[in-house]
Write a structure and sequence with these properties.
CATH superfamily of the largest domain: Type I PLP-dependent aspartate aminotransferase-like (Major domain)
Bound molecules: pyridoxal-5'-phosphate
Shape: globular
CATH architecture of the largest domain: 3-Layer(aba) Sandwich
Radius of gyration: 26 Å
CATH topology of the largest domain: Aspartate Aminotransferase, domain 2
Number of domains: 3
Oligomer: single chain
């Protein structure tokens, strides 16, 4: 496809302005001479129509949750109701400025205050800060609070325990904060191996980081026991809340004994971000960690009924992000929670789990199912059987593109060979799920009968399969 520079035509303009009816002022009168360019910038010259077509065509080359089934495990790519977008774009939300006086933004502050309270209720925690801008940043905030807690107790510990099924951001976060990462293996049911945990828990352990349900889509039934063991060793426990979609309205990390969790608003509460969109990763804590929450917190002055930003928290770990977090994502999450209500949220996890189990049961004969137990909102298959025929998980992922389906997450979690991690979410119809099953079965048949068609895929996309080594060594950059 041509770039915008390829379609540039000298003299083409995307604007038309009436002739100037005031005297022209030389630029040098307005901007200091040393800041002026010598030559005009090299910008493409195109008409408005050409710009519109160019970018619309570019966007049509992409895969999006608005156009295709997007079972990207661990990313919860659910459909994002458009009413949330419309509300987040309303001037009262989108045209306010972070430096505006609190008295002028009471509605925005109220929205943040209520959202934080609802999240605390959903997570079973005492208090929530909306500061972090992504799940990973929420993890960083959570772990930083744990470190601050141990330091304040005069006992800065040096290790963090993380299961071998964990998302990469968990060990990365612990390492960024200076902790040594100790890996605890999973047992045959995909949960934490309790005996190994027992051995690893010593006086140097600051925390455990658990995802529950974990990245295999399995709910660790020992979670309460694990948290008790961790606490008896003087450590704290962090819940990676990225998989909250599976347990919304059913169970709460706070009740499971976790001290802190992050919410991925952009997954559980719409605003899908699997393509790298904006995120928001609030952190919620119990009493023990409350003093350390990132500032500002949005509080309500009971006497006058006004909302305000509270920075007066002497033990706070400080700010995670400029201003108050990613406000637009908060508005969408607020709308999502408010429009579904408690019953609706409970129904979300019902259907998310049902859809995942439906797909798992339909596909388990065709692909290897390493953990053969009921799953939560996602499950992991292995393409080991297909690999023996010369077709790997990544080839299957590319072939799916030919059928207008976004590939699942592949090669994660690391403990499953040739992993295909599938998360259908609750917003897909049975028809969409059945089509995915048919396509996955067809690909498995192709692996036997005509592997070449998979190995050369994708065939229907604007960019076909890349020679990855060649692309890395001799990239064509523009
Ligand atoms: C289990 C898990 N934890 C943490 C994260 C990090 O979240 P984010 O991408 O919002 O930084 C992800 C993201 O995909 C995840 O799947």
């Amino acid at each position: 496809m041509e770039t915008i520079f390829d379609i540039s035509r000298p003299g083409a303009k995307a604007y038309s302005l009436p002739p100037l009816d005031v005297p022209v002022k030389p630029l040098g009168d307005l901007i200091p001479a040393n800041l002026l360019r010598d030559e005009a910038p090299l910008l493409p010259e195109v008409s408005e129509g050409e710009i519109a077509r160019h970018y619309t065509n570019l966007s049509n080359m992409d895969f999006a949750v608005d156009t295709v089934f997007y079972p990207l495990g661990s990313c919860t790519m659910k459909y994002n109701p458009k009413v949330n977008e419309a509300i987040a774009s309303m001037g009262g939300f989108s045209n306010i400025h972070p430096y505006q006086d609190e008295s002028q933004v009471q509605g925005a502050l109220r929205l943040m205050h209520e959202l934080a309270q609802w999240l605390a209720e959903i997570g079973g925690v005492k208090k929530v800060s909306l500061q972090p801008a992504a799940g990973a940043q929420g993890e960083l905030a959570g772990m930083a609070m744990i470190r601050a807690y141990h330091e304040r107790n005069g006992n800065p510990r040096s290790k963090v325990i993380i299961p071998d099924s964990a998302h990469g951001t968990n060990p990365a976060t612990a390492a960024m904060l200076g902790y040594k990462v100790v890996t605890v293996p999973s047992d045959e049911f995909g949960g934490v191996d309790i005996k190994s945990l027992e051995r690893l828990l010593d006086e140097e352990v600051a925390a455990i980081v658990l995802t529950n349900p974990n990245t295999l889509g399995i709910f660790d039934k020992n979670v309460v026991k694990i948290n008790e063991m961790v606490h008896s060793a003087g450590a704290l426990s962090f819940c990676d809340g990225a998989n909250l979609n599976a347990i919304l309205g059913k169970s709460r990390p706070g009740d499971m004994g976790f001290d802190v969790l992050q919410f991925n608003l952009h997954k559980t509460f719409s605003t899908p971000h699997g393509g790298g969109g904006p995120g928001s990763g609030p952190v919620g804590v119990n009493e023990v960690l409350e003093p350390f929450l990132p500032v500002p917190l949005v509080e309500k002055d009971g006497a006058v009924g006004a909302y305000y930003l509270d920075y007066e928290r002497p033990f706070s770990i400080g700010k995670m992000k400029a201003f108050y977090g990613n406000f637009g994502v908060m508005v969408k999450a607020y709308c999502y929670i408010r429009s579904l209500g408690a019953e609706g949220l409970d129904h979300v996890s019902d259907i998310a789990v049902l859809n995942a189990n439906y797909l798992k049961n339909k596909l388990e004969g065709t692909y290897i199912l390493p953990y053969d137990i009921p799953c939560m909102h996602e499950f992991v298959l292995s393409a080991e059987r297909q690999k023996k025929l010369g077709v790997k998980a990544r080839d299957i992922a590319k072939r799916l593109l030919d059928f207008n389906i976004h590939p699942p997450t592949i090669y994660f979690p690391l403990i499953v060979d040739e992993a295909l991690m599938i998360e259908p979410t609750e917003t897909e119809s049975k028809k969409a799920l059945d089509r995915f099953v048919d396509v996955m079965k067809q690909i498995a048949e192709e692996a036997v009968e005509n592997p070449d068609i998979i190995l050369t895929a994708p065939h229907n996309t604007p960019v076909s399969k890349l020679n990855e080594a060649e692309a890395a060594r001799h990239p064509h950059l523009k």
